[in-house]
User: Fold this.
Amino acid sequence: MLDQITAHPGSAVPDHRFRQLLGEAAWQALPQPVRSRFGKRMKGGSSVVYQGVVVAMRRNIAGYVLSHLARLVGAPLPYDSTSLNQPAVVTVTEDCAGDGQFWVRQYGRASGFPQVIHSSKRFSGPTGIEEYIGSGIGMALRVGVEDGGLSFRSDHYFLQFGSWRLRLPGWCSPGALTITHRDLGDARFLFSLTLESRFFGELVHQDALFHDMEVQP
Assistant:
């Protein structure tokens, strides 16, 4: 990742937002490649792109139903088991109008168009970081270090329209979401998503193996 910054001067600058959320001790506990990926901010409309492949995908019956119902609000959960062994691409772009990032995740399918998930991470709210998926739906996240990887755990979900905001009670949430970013060396990392319910167990789990690519202007 440092080579990418050197190859594209001015496209990225140091970013301390994740470092401040974690605290210095936890930040230094992360491998250097993870600190490099999350310690820079894209500028001037540039994006950083990670390309990979989905290596694990599973859902139980409740997860199957939920992931398809979620398509009504932008399909934020992987819903097609044929994405296994299909290409995956993640693009991260700085939100120039606000203090945040735009994330676009594209997962190939055995047939038809790929699934595309759009979300916006904003460094605000009671936990310091929130993710919005559209349709007024968002969740507050807790950032931590687990087993040498960077983790994002859902703290609570909310609805927001303009200045009006409603924190959803626990029984009304889809479950506890955990996303981890674990470095594997050789410019590779594993992105894992798990959604669990206290009533239905593990609803959805997906692993995707990515490698670093060039910054795109």
